[in-house]
Each structure stands twice: as structure tokens, then as C-alpha cells.
Design brief:
The chain has about 100 residues and is mostly helical. It has a domain of about 60 residues. The chain has four helices and no strands.
């Protein structure tokens, strides 16, 4: 039997301690309230997903020989990346709706 975890979808987690500026903490907390019901860990997970996408883009550009893009092309690429779901949003379950008794 698989051991149950407290994290969604069995994501293994580790507790860490970090130091951030007061401005950055306010930014993280605001994002947590707006997008993740106050869950600061979800904000960190979202940032990690963004970092993974950025690193994948870097690998792709190196593979393509570091092509030169116009500002217009870069803007379209950035827009497409922004529309891509983060790992957290893509796997997050929707709450079940209760059914009325007949």
C-alpha cells in the first residue's frame, strides 16, 4: 500500500527555511492569497514551474544554435509561455459540487 502524503497528488515535500526581503514576502503572500487560497507553498511551486519552463527554453535555444529573434517574435514567445499552465494549476483538482438529495 502506498504511503499517504499530505501534499496534493503525492508530491513529496521538504521543509526549508529561506530569507527574503520584506517586499518580496509581501509579493509572495499577495500572490498566495489571490491565486492559491493563501498557500505560500503553492506560490513556490508555481515559481519552480516557471523556472523549469525558462530552463527548457534555454536548452532549446542552445540546441537551435542561439537564434536571433526580433522584439516582436520575443513578445509572441513570452505571451505563449505566460498562457501555459504551471505545474500546480495543471494538476489542481476542482472541488466536488454537492448533489441535492432526490
Amino acid at each position: 500500500m502506498q504511503k499517504r502524503t499530505r501534499r496534493q497528488h503525492g508530491i513529496k515535500s521538504r521543509k526549508v527555511s529561506i530569507s527574503v526581503s520584506a517586499d518580496d514576502l509581501r509579493l509572495f503572500m499577495r500572490r498566495a492569497r489571490q491565486k492559491h487560497g493563501g498557500n505560500l507553498s503553492a506560490v513556490i511551486h508555481e515559481l519552480a514551474g516557471s523556472l523549469r519552463r525558462e530552463e527548457a527554453a534555454d536548452r532549446l535555444f542552445r540546441l537551435l544554435g542561439n537564434p536571433k529573434f526580433t522584439e516582436e517574435e520575443l513578445a509572441r514567445i513570452r505571451e505563449e509561455i505566460e498562457r501555459a499552465p504551471t505545474g500546480y494549476e495543471a494538476t489542481r483538482r476542482r472541488p466536488r459540487q454537492r448533489r441535492r438529495a432526490a
